[in-house]
Amino acid sequence: MKNLLTSLLAVLALAIAPAHAQELFPSIPKALGEPHPEGNEYWRINHPALLAHDRDLVVLEGIRDVDASLVGCVVCHAVNGPDQGPVPMPVDAGSPDNSCQVCHQFVAIEIGCFVCHASVPSKEDVAMILPQYSADDEGWRDYMEDLAALQEAPQ
Amino acid sequence: MTSPLHKEKGAELSRRDILKSGAALATVTLAPGVTLMAFGGKKAAAGEDMPADGLKPGARWGLLIDAAKCPEDCSACVSACSAELGWENNGLETDPQWIRKVTLRDKETGRTNSLPVMCQHCESPPCVDVCPTGASFKREDGIVLVNRHTCIGCRYCMMACPFKARSFVFAPVSDQKSIAPRGIGTVEGCTLCVHKIDRGDGTTACVEACTATGNNAMMFGDLNDPESEIAIAVATYASVELRADLGLNLGVRYQNI
User: Fold this and answer.
1) What is the ipTM of this complex?
2) Which of A54, A62, B209, B250 could form a disulfide with A68, with the two C-beta atoms 3.0–4.6 Å apart?
3) Backbone φ and ψ of B220, nearest 5°
4) pLDDT tens-digit profile of B239-249?
5) Where in chain B is the domain with CATH 3.30.70.20?
């Protein structure tokens, strides 16, 4: 009887699993730019160590041309925000829609980075990381349009 | 004669050089069975030579300020610093002051002097001596900085600094500049526009602004490079350090005070 009940529960669990699959993982917004050559899984696991390593190169040794820069994260992984006046802006790290926050809120881990670092890129940051956009109003408009198009595209 | 400004060591083989030279191989064998894994910036990994990226070896960046050319009513350097690095001082005691204008008055003669004072980038910085976490540090090119990643906000450095050059961030900050991260609970001060130096601009925001006003009271350069304008100027004309009695060998020197 006990075995029957267990298998019944197991079957039931399997049956309802697909319905809950989408809630099991956060839906991570798509990003602009070239994909990480190491793959997304690698970066999802290792981004704290990679960022911590390269921040020491920048701060202590003045090496600015690093592979893992927080400005790079913020530019490519920006999320188009609700219209805030004449100039559209990506959402900042205070928003649950922010690319970092989507996962960090899901796993309930506070992000320390944005206590000090800017969580919204500047025009110059965008042009530096993604040279196809110019560091002026026109480049910013193209950037924001491309961000909006990404998020409207099916996941 | 060797000037105290030239005391800093030259381009000896540093840890950075070792990392650089080993970058192409990715590992350096220190002893049998002991290897040093070398990671670096993109340029280091490509095995390219310095100093396109990273700090200039053997440099000692500094400022020379001529107080005679600095009018009392001008604060262009302060506004430029504030705009470039994203701090704001509204006159509250708790507001940050990376650079400030100071007026000196000789009690005997009544002569007054106006000059900007910022972190003096000491060769032997007291702020580095007292820091319990190593967050207050001096880069190899003489720039004294706070590594906010390790700063715990104890403010020992603020007490140790003879020039009151450091401030504490008391309130949450938003809209920071990406070139100058700053946030609550950490100490901050003049960075000598390290982001501009690393970019190769060869100047700082305050010096740019001072030159733009036409006063030309400030000069930036490498004190260790005998060819540089600043090294020639300090070798030719009299200049002093503030609180020279402390023997800290400052990177910022003043004329006519």
Assistant:
1) 0.79
2) A54
3) -120, 145
4) 999 999 999 99
5) 61-255
